[in-house]
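Final report, closing paragraph on structural work. Over the funding period we assembled a curated collection of sequence-structure pairs, and we close with a single example.
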Amino acid sequence: MEQLIRANLHYLSQAESLLERMDDGRFATPAAGFYNSSVGGHLRHCIEHYLSFLAGMEDGRVDYDCRARDERVETRTGDAVERVREVKAAMKPVFGDLPEDVTEENMQARIRGVFLMSLSNKSGRLLLTTGNKSELAVGYCTMYGDMCGGLAVISDLPKMQVYALSRINRDKEIIPWDTIDKPPSAELRPDQKDQEKGC
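Its predicted structure, as stored:
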């Protein structure tokens, strides 16, 4: 339970950081990637799930259908930030002051894994795993995270061969150059580099 609460607090902190950098127009505009919903629409449902859970903690009954719906959270970043901070403040006494660690980092990878596997199942398309031989050899991967998928196409290639392969079609820019040239990172925390793990 402690790990779950810690991971959710980390998620809420990320949402707060995103909201502080986003204007109301982008926040409320429907996008194809969100199935013609908006960032605000999805975030409102997330916040309402948290509030429903917190409201039902005392009697053990959580009823999402009876939640209070606040449309302002869907269209105004200021109101959304306020509600995110409200949820964080309500959850912290349950968890205490333990610092963030690899638990939150792994949760991010697993959330992405669930999302991508869901798209794969719904669309009937094959999800490819991203781990290479160097990472798998030292365990630099997340179970139910980047290990999700039906085919491991580069699992027999060491990381340096993956880089060499990515540069073959350099003139066509199939892979963005900044992705190839920047230091490799799982990007699960600020300034994280794969070299820290020897990969």
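The chain has two domains: 2-95, 127-197. Residues 127-197 form a domain with the Rossmann fold fold (CATH 3.40.50.620). We thank the funder for supporting this effort.
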